Structure formats: C-alpha cells, structure tokens
Amino acid sequence: MNERINARPISTINLSRKLKLSQMMVFARVLDTGSFIRAANELGLTQPAISKAIFELESFFDEELFNRSNRGVTPTEFGLMLGRRVRSLIAELRFMTDEVHAFRKGDTGHLIVGTLIAASAVLLPRAIAQLQDEAPGVLVTIQEGTAAQLFPKLMTGEIDIVVGRLPERDSQLYTSLPIRHEELYGEEFSVVCGTDHPLAGREDVAVAELADAAWIFPLPESPARMAAEKMFHDAGIPVPIPRVESLSLLANLGLMLHSDLLSFMPRAAAVQLMRVGSLSILSMPAMHNAGRVGFSIRADKDLAPSCKRFLMCLRRAAVDLTQVSE
Known about the structure:
By secondary structure, the chain is α/β, with parallel strands linked by helices.
C-alpha cells in the first residue's frame, strides 16, 4: 500500500506521449480473451508482439496488468480498473470511425445492440431488417443478456443501445445511471400451448379451466410473473404451482412442443409463432400492462449515426407490431 501511495504521479501529458492506441487495443483483446495467443490470432499479430505491448504498459504504469498461469491470464485489480477506462476510449474511437465513415460515404458503421428477451423474438428482428434495407453497409452485432449485464456495458460504450423490457421506474437501474429510456409500447402477454394440447383451438377458454394445468411460469418478481399471477387472483382462483420457471422463448417453445405445458408469452411473439404453426394462442383475453418495452441509450453521449438511424427503425417496427397484435 505504501509503495502505491509513494508512486510517481502520472500526468495527462505523459499518458498522451507514452501510450499508444495499438497498445490499448492489444490490452483490451487480452482482457476479453484471457489469452495472449487468442488475442494475437484475433489481431493478426505474433505472440511476442502481444507480450511486448503488455510489458510496455506494465512498465509505464509500474503495475502488473495480468496474473499469468498455464490456463491463460486473468486481470489484476489494477488491470480491471484500467480495462474499464480503455474500453471507454476504444468505444469513443469506434464512434469517431463511424462518424467519419458516415460523413464520407454515408450509412455505414458498426452498431452493437444489447437485447433483453422481450425484444429479441420480434421487435429487434423487424427493426434490424428495416435498417439493413435502408443501410446495408451497417454491421449489426447483437449481445443478449440480462439488464444487470447489459446496462454496465452501455455505460462503458461496449454496446450502443439496449432494446427490451424497460426497468421499473423506481429501480436502481432506472434512477442511478445517466441513461435515457424511451417506451415504445406496453407489452401484452397471451396464454399459449403446443398445437396438440387439448385446449388448442377451443373457443372462450375460462381461467378456471387453467387452475389444474401444468405450467411454465415467468421468473419470480418479473413483470410477466406478476401479470400471470394477477390473472388468477382476479378470477378468484389460487395461483397454480409451476412445473418450470423460465423466460426463454426458445426453451419454452420446445417444452410446449413436447408436452402439455401451458405458458405465457409476449403476444407479438406468440402471434408470429402461431402463424407458422408452432403453437396455439388460447382463446382468452390477453394480459395487458405486463411491462414496458422500449430502448435505453446513454443520456450523456451523442449517438453514432448508425444508432440514430436504428432508433427510427425501432419506432416504426414498434408501430407495426402494435397493429399486428391487435
């Protein structure tokens, strides 16, 4: 600790003179891959060149960036701290590259989208399809995850936008970060089942008929779970004990295709799957206000041109979706 307190100060001028962008890009790739060899392969460099760049950074900061072992490398505490800053710098470099390309050629760039389950099945594919029609030169990378995983990446610039169910207005994710949220529509859920289920094709299914059914329920404390439980409470029926708890559309679809399980699904996704014959929507009212679907972007940073265009595609796709699901 005393050695760090007495360490020589580093000025911004020293950083700008000594550090190279190429070194920081090497550091970021080693951090992401956990391996000098994999980083070298991805960057098209030799392993000695990777080692040299890391050694130069460690010498400049007088700190070790990685712990080495036979299984690869793991970042030190200092390496983790530096990594957060380096990722932000690389993100800014990517934004600058996008803007230069957009200015010179127009409609190019690299858009990194974080998606939550509420948007991944229908809204996001429709919006990306529109973007590709209008700007085929934009490369879109999709990262799926939870809000807790995606919002920190949004803040560091590793992703440009998060699309999906918005956090609750009183949640820490909503109030503690400089992020702007825009609601596109209120999510509706339908009760769905496999096409061979005894209730498939029935008219006017009553909630009481579902009390003894085998269920896939949304995860506890999710807006979808609360909407599902409210459906039974409003009907004066005890909430069934679920056989499975899941928010995975793909897993839930597979379960319903091979069993008599019922499930809840965002209505827009359910309508799309029903049209291709993958499942049936029970003939009963949809559950409204099961969550707010929209997008989240940094409030303190300007958007890259490709992201601004994508926002327009998202808004149009949302309008189309609300008309389809009605």
